[in-house]
TrEMBL record:
Entry keyword annotation includes Zinc-finger: yes
Identification of the protein by name: Retrovirus-related Pol polyprotein from transposon TNT 1-94
Single GO term (MF): aspartic-type endopeptidase activity
Keyword Secreted: yes
Region (Disordered): 173-228
Domain (Peptidase A1): residue spans on this chain: 669-1031
Residues of the CCHC-type domain: 236-249
Keywords: Metal-binding, Secreted, Signal, Zinc, Zinc-finger
Record localization: Secreted, Extracellular space
Biological processes annotated in GO: proteolysis
Family: Belongs to the peptidase A1 family.
Pfam assignment, any one: gag_pre-integrs
C-alpha cells in the first residue's frame, strides 16, 4: 500500500461541446484549486491611490488569474482556443464561453439581427440569405443536428429569418424538455443485485414470487431477477399517474377536441392566457383576441402592418417563462363594417407570436371603455358610442374578427417582391418567381410569394373572361420569354420603375445658372422610345423630360391636389436673408428692402432678383392649367395618378415657414423678420433655448403700431418688474411699462427692456398682438452675428416665438428646424406644422425631458428649465461603449448633468470626464482606419491629416459616434457633423472640452449638443406630446436642408 500522501491528481475536464456538463466539472475543479473566486469575480481594477498591501494583494490575484487561464487553455481544443486568445483575464474567457455555448437560439438570433441592422444602417448591403447562412454557420455545436436537418429539408435561399428562428426555437424547447424529464422507467428496471450472488439465481417469474426463494440464491432480497418490483414510483407516460407503465394503462383519456376546449380551464392564471395564444396555430390573420393580461397590442403577421418601424427592439415575457423577441413597432390599419378605415397604433411586431393580441389596458389608456357583461365584451368610445361587441367563446376567450387593410395603397413599397409586382404591372407572384428561379431574365431579386393579396389585382381581375381554346396558332415555349425566343438574347428588367412614382432628373450645367436647382422633380412615365433614357413628366412646367441621370423615389407619388408656390429670395448686397414670399403669378417679382430700411414704393431700389423663367409664363400655376396643345395630356395623367396617389400630409396654408442662414464668423444661425408699421426687415439670431423674442431699437427704428404693455396689465408676467424711461418716447422707452429681461446667453451680463406688442409679418401673413422685448441699448447685441438686431427664442415658454404664433393662429404647438451647413445655403424653420413628411414616417424619435432645476440666469427657486433636454443613456464609437460615470447623464439635486440641445453653442461641449475617454476611443478607432493624427488646433484636441481620410456620402469616412437614447433609438454622428476643417488639409473632431462643474454651480449640463452637430438634421419639436423627431444626417439620403423640394424620407 502506498503512502497516504500519494493520491491521483484530478485531471482537467476537457471541453467536448457540451457546455453545461463541462462548466459544472470545470467549476468544481477550479474550486478545488482555490481559483474559482478569480474566475467568478475577476482581478479587480487598480485605483489611483493604493497602499503597498493592496498592491501585493493585486499581484497575487493576477498570479492566480494566470494559473486559472492556464487550466482553461488546457481544457479547450485549439479551434476554440483561437477564438478566445484575445481575452485578457480568466473571467473574460469564462464569460465568452458561457455567452457562446449557453446562449439561447432566440437571444443569439436577436443579437445577430441587431448587428446586421446596424451594418445595414451604415450602408452595408446584407441580404436575408446572408444573415441566415451566418446564423447557421456560427451556432453552437449542440445545434449541429438541427442545422443539418434544416439544410437537408429546406432551401436556404428561400428560408426567411422568421422561419429559421421558429425552427431553432422548436428544437431548443424540445432539447430542454428532454434534458429536464426524468427517465423513471429506466431507473426502475435497473437490477439491484449483490455481488456475492451474481449469476447464481435461477428464479423465473411467478414461480420465484410464489416460492419466496431458496438458499440457492433465489431469494427476493438477494436476487434481482426474481424480486417483486415496486412500481409505486413509476410514472405512466400516458396518463402521468404512478403505479403502472404506459403499456398497462387503461385510463380513458378525453378526445383531442375536448382536451383543446378544456386547456384554458386547467390554467386559471391570467398570465398563462398569453401562453395559450402563443402556442396555438395561427389560423387567421384577421382574428384578434381581447386580452386583459397583455400589456401591449401585439401581432405576428408582418403583412398586417401599414407602417412598421423595424429599428425598435424589445422582448416580451409570457406566462410559461418564455421570451419572445419584438422586431418592430408600428400601426395596423383595419376596415370596419361601414367601410371606414381605422388604425390600431403602437402595435408590437413579434414574429414568434401565432395570434394577434388586443391589449385591454392599452385601449383604456386611449380613452376607450371596456364592459364585460352577458357573456360579451363591449368596447365603446365616449363620443362614438359602442365600437365593437365581442362574444365570449367556449374556452372563455374574446375573439374579434376584423379585416386588416392589406391594400398596396396603405403600405410603403419596401419588400422587393411587392416592388417588382408593381413594376411588372401587378404580374402574378408565381409568374415572377418562375422568371427568377428559371433565370429567364436578369436583374430580378429573390421573389417570396406573400400571403397578402393585392386588392388592386382582385378588382382588375373580376371581369376576366376565359381565353378561347385552340385559337392560338403557336405553341408555348417552356421557360423562354418571347424576346429570347426571337432574338436569342435574355432580356434584363433591372431598369423597371413604378409608373407614376417620383423621380428627380438632373439638369445639365449648360441649362442652369449658378443659383438654380441641380434637379427637377418629375413623374415617371416609362422609357423613351427614341433613346436609352427615361421618359418623365414635370407637372410644374407641363413638359415631357427625357433623361438618363435620374434618382427615383418609388415610395411616393406626386401630390396633384396640393399647391406648389414659388419661393423668391431677395439677393441683397449685404447678404441678408429676406422672408419667403409666396408668388402665384409670374408677371411681377417682389423685391425686399435691405435690413434697417423701411418699405416705401418711392424709395425702393432695384436689385438682382431671381425671377420665373420666361418659358413658364404661359401657364397659371394657381389653377394648374396649361396651353391648349398639351392640356389633354395633362388631364390624362392627372386622372391616372389620382387613382393611386397615397395621402401625404400637406403643409397647411396657415403655417409659417422662415429661411435660416449660417453666419461664417460666429457659426450661429439667423433669420429675418418684418416688424412694425411700416415694416422693418431685421436680422434675428435663433436661440433654441431662448425664452422670448427681443430686438434693439437703438437705430432709427420706430413703429406706429407698437403698444407698450402697462405694469398693471394681465399680459405682464408676475415675475416681471415696472420700468421707466427719461428719453423721448419710442419702442423700448416708455414709462410705467412692464419690464422684460433681455437675455443673451453669450454674455455674462443681463440687460432690461420693455415688453410691448407690435405687428409681425411672417411668410406674407400679418400677425397682430405679438409680444416681444424691446431695448434701446446695443450692448446686448455683442458676440451676435453681424447686423443682428436681437434673438428669437424657441424654448417652451408662453412668450417664445413658436408658442405665440401657434396660439395666435390656432396651430398645433410644434415647430421644426433644419439648419444649413454652409453660409451660402438656406435652411428652414417650420412653425405650427410638420415639415416635408408627417411625424409618423420619421424613423427616429425620443422624449423631451425637463430639468427640474432652472438653467436660466434669473429664476425663482422651484422653477424648472424651459430649455430642451433629451435622455442619453450612453455614448459609443463604432459600437464600442465609452466608459465614464453614467451619473453624469442624469440630473442631480442642483440641476447639473443631462444632455441639452443648443444653437448658441457652435460645437458640442462635453464634461471633461466624458470628453477625454471619448477622444481616446475616437483616436483609437481612427488609428485602425489609418487616419494620421497631427498637432491639435485650439479649441479642438483630436486633429488629423485630411489626405489620410476617405470620403463617403456622409462626408469624411471617420468613426461613427452614437448616442443611445430611450426606446433603443440612436443618434448617429457622421463625418459631416463630427469633423470640422480648421485649416488647409487639417480636420479636427468637432467636440470641445467643457471642463468640470465648479463647486456650488447649478444648471450645468454634462453634454451640450451644439449647432455643428445639429446642422443638416431635420429636428421636429412636438411640444404637445413633448417629443423630438429627428432624421439623423440628411446626407445619408442624398438630401440637405437647402433642397426643400427633395423628400427627406
Amino acid at each position: 500500500m502506498g503512502s497516504e500522501n500519494n493520491f491521483v491528481q484530478p485531471s482537467i475536464p476537457r471541453f467536448d461541446g457540451h457546455y453545461d456538463h463541462w462548466s459544472m466539472l470545470m467549476e468544481n475543479f477550479l474550486r478545488s484549486k482555490e481559483y474559482w473566486t478569480i474566475v467568478e469575480d475577476g482581478i479587480g481594477v487598480e485605483g489611483e491611490a493604493v497602499t503597498n498591501a493592496q498592491k501585493t494583494e493585486l499581484e497575487a490575484r493576477k498570479l492566480k488569474d494566470l494559473k486559472a487561464k492556464n487550466y482553461l487553455f488546457q481544457a479547450i481544443d485549439r479551434p476554440i482556443l483561437e477564438t478566445i486568445l484575445c481575452k485578457d483575464t480568466s473571467k473574460d474567457i469564462w464569460d465568452s464561453m458561457k455567452k457562446k455555448y449557453q446562449e439561447s437560439s432566440t437571444s443569439y438570433c436577436a443579437r445577430t439581427m441587431e448587428i446586421s441592422n446596424k451594418m445595414r444602417f451604415h450602408g452595408e448591403k446584407m441580404s436575408d440569405v446572408t444573415i441566415v447562412e451566418k446564423i447557421l454557420r456560427s451556432l453552437a455545436p449542440k445545434f449541429d443536428y438541427v442545422v443539418y436537418a434544416i439544410e437537408e429539408s429546406k432551401d436556404i435561399d428561400t428560408l426567411s429569418l422568421d422561419e429559421l428562428q421558429s425552427s431553432l426555437l422548436v428544437h431548443e424547447q424540445k432539447m430542454n424538455r428532454s434534458s429536464n424529464s426524468e427517465e423513471q422507467a429506466l431507473k426502475a428496471s435497473t437490477p439491484i443485485s449483490s455481488s456475492n450472488y451474481r449469476g447464481r439465481g435461477r428464479g423465473r417469474g411467478d414461480q420465484a414470487r410464489r416460492d419466496g426463494g431458496n438458499k440457492d440464491g433465489r431469494t427476493n432480497n438477494d436476487q434481482g431477477r426474481g424480486k417483486k418490483f415496486d412500481k409505486s414510483k413509476v410514472e405512466c407516460f400516458r396518463c402521468h399517474k404512478f403505479g403502472h407503465y404506459r403499456s398497462e394503462c387503461y385510463t380513458r383519456l378525453p378526445s383531442d377536441k375536448e382536451e383543446k376546449s378544456n386547456f384554458v380551464e386547467n390554467n386559471e392564471a391570467e398570465t398563462l392566457l398569453m401562453a395559450v395564444h402563443a402556442k396555438q396555430e395561427f389560423e387567421e390573420q384577421t382574428m384578434w383576441y381581447v386580452d386583459s393580461g397583455c400589456s401591449n397590442h401585439m401581432s405576428g403577421s408582418k403583412s398586417s402592418f401599414s407602417y412598421l418601424n423595424e429599428n425598435f427592439r424589445s422582448t416580451v415575457s409570457f406566462g410559461d417563462s418564455s421570451i419572445v423577441n419584438v422586431m418592430g413597432k408600428g400601426n395596423v390599419s383595419i376596415r370596419t363594417k361601414n367601410g371606414s378605415i381605422e388604425t390600431i397604433s403602437n402595435v408590437l411586431y413579434a414574429p414568434a407570436l401565432k395570434n394577434n393580441l388586443l391589449s385591454a389596458s392599452q385601449l383604456l389608456e386611449k380613452g376607450y371603455v371596456i364592459t364585460l357583461r352577458n357573456g360579451a365584451c363591449e368596447i365603446s368610445d365616449q363620443t362614438r358610442g359602442i365600437i365593437a361587441i365581442v362574444k365570449m367563446s367556449q374556452n372563455r376567450l374574446f375573439p374579434l374578427n376584423i379585416e386588416n387593410v392589406q391594400s398596396c395603397l396603405m403600405t410603403e413599397v419596401k419588400d422587393p417582391s411587392w416592388l417588382w409586382h408593381y413594376r411588372y404591372g401587378h404580374l402574378n407572384f408565381n409568374g415572377l418567381k418562375v422568371l427568377q428561379t428559371t433565370n429567364m431574365v436578369t436583374g430580378l431579386p429573390q421573389i417570396v410569394v406573400p400571403s397578402q393579396v393585392c386588392e388592386e389585382c382582385i378588382v382588375g381581375k373580376q371581369h376576366r373572361s376565359q381565353f378561347p381554346k385552340g385559337k392560338c396558332p403557336t405553341h408555348a415555349v417552356q421557360d423562354v420569354t418571347p424576346e429570347e425566343a426571337w432574338s436569342k438574347k435574355r432580356p434584363a428588367v433591372d431598369y423597371f420603375k413604378i409608373f407614376g412614382c417620383i423621380a428627380y432628373a438632373h439638369v445639365p450645367d449648360e441649362k442652369r445658372k449658378k443659383l438654380d436647382d441641380k434637379g427637377e422633380k418629375c413623374v415617371v412615365l416609362g422609357v423613351s422610345d427614341t433613346s436609352k433614357a427615361y421618359k418623365l413628366f414635370n407637372p410644374l412646367t407641363k413638359k415631357i423630360v427625357t433623361s438618363r441621370d435620374v434618382i427615383f423615389d418609388e415610395e411616393n407619388t406626386w401630390d396633384w391636389g396640393g399647391q406648389q408656390p414659388t419661393q423668391i429670395f431677395a439677393d441683397n448686397e449685404d447678404d441678408d436673408v429676406a422672408p419667403i414670399i409666396e408668388n402665384s403669378t409670374p408677371p411681377t417679382a417682389e423685391i425686399l428692402p435691405p435690413q434697417g430700411e423701411e418699405t416705401s414704393a418711392t424709395t425702393e431700389a432695384l436689385r438682382r432678383v431671381r425671377r420665373r423663367p420666361a418659358w413658364m409664363q404661359d401657364y397659371e400655376s394657381e389653377e394648374m392649367t396649361m396651353a391648349s396643345s398639351s392640356s389633354s395630356i395633362f388631364h390624362f395623367f392627372l386622372l391616372s395618378f389620382l387613382c393611386f396617389s397615397p395621402s401625404i400630409l400637406q403643409t397647411a396654408s396657415s403655417a409659417f415657414i422662415l429661411p435660416i442662414r449660417k453666419d461664417p464668423q460666429t457659426s450661429l444661425f439667423f433669420t429675418s423678420l418684418a416688424i412694425g408699421t411700416p415694416l422693418h426687415n431685421i436680422r434675428i439670431t435663433i436661440d433654441l433655448g431662448g425664452p422670448s423674442l427681443w430686438y434693439s431699437s437703438a437705430s432709427d427704428y420706430n413703429s406706429s403700431s407698437y403698444t407698450p404693455i402697462p405694469c398693471s396689465s394681465k399680459q405682464c408676467p408676475p415675475s416681471s418688474f415696472c420700468s421707466g424711461c427719461n428719453l423721448p418716447y419710442k419702442p423700448g422707452c416708455s414709462n410705467d411699462t412692464c419690464g422684460h429681461y433681455i437675455i443673451n446667453p453669450l454674455l455674462d451680463s443681463i440687460h432690461t427692456g420693455d415688453l410691448g406688442q407690435d405687428l409681425l409679418s411672417v411668410s406674407k401673413k400679418q400677425v397682430s398682438g405679438f409680444l416681444s422685448g424691446v431695448t434701446t441699448s446695443q450692448s446686448p447685441l455683442e458676440n451676435l452675428p453681424k447686423q443682428s438686431k436681437g434673438i428669437m427664442g424657441l424654448a417652451r415658454t408662453d412668450l417664445s416665438f413658436p408658442t405665440q404664433l401657434s396660439l395666435l393662429n390656432n396651430l398645433p404647438r410644434k415647430f421644426a428646424l433644419c439648419l444649413p451647413s454652409s453660409p451660402n445655403t438656406n435652411g428652414k424653420l417650420y412653425v405650427g406644422v410638420s415639415g416635408p413628411k408627417p411625424v409618423s414616417e420619421f424613423p427616429f424619435s425620443t422624449p423631451l425631458i425637463i430639468n427640474p432645476v432652472s438653467t436660466a440666469p434669473i429664476y425663482t427657486p422651484g422653477d424648472a428649465s424651459y430649455e430642451y433636454f433629451i435622455n442619453v443613456k450612453s455614448l459609443s464609437v463604432v459600437g464600442d461603449v465609452v466608459n465614464f460615470n453614467p451619473s453624469l447623464l442624469s440630473f442631480d439635486s442642483k440641476g447639473n448633468g443631462g444632455t441639452k440641445l443648443s444653437t448658441m453653442t457652435p460645437y458640442t461641449k462635453l464634461h471633461s470626464s466624458i470628453f477625454k475617454p471619448l477622444v481616446r476611443a475616437f483616436v483609437k478607432k481612427a488609428s485602425d482606419m489609418k487616419m494620421k493624427k497631427v498637432e491639435s488646433v485650439a479649441p479642438f484636441e483630436a486633429c488629423f491629416d485630411k489626405a489620410t481620410i476617405g470620403r463617403s456620402n456622409s462626408g469624411l469616412d471617420v468613426p461613427v459616434i452614437e448616442l443611445e437614447l430611450e426606446e433603443h433609438m440612436y443618434w448617429s454622428t457622421y463625418g459631416v457633423n463630427s469633423m470640422v476643417e480648421v485649416k488647409q488639409n487639417v480636420v479636427c473632431l468637432a467636440f470641445v472640452d467643457g471642463g468640470k462643474v465648479e463647486k456650488g454651480a447649478s444648471g450645468v449640463s454634462s453634454i451640450v449638443i451644439g449647432g455643428y452637430t445639429l446642422q443638416e438634421n431635420y429636428l421636429e419639436f412636438d411640444l404637445g406630446s413633448s417629443k423630438l423627431y429627428f432624421s439623423n444626417s440628411l446626407s445619408l439620403r442624398n438630401a440637405s436642408c437647402s433642397h426643400s423640394s427633395v423628400s427627406f424620407f
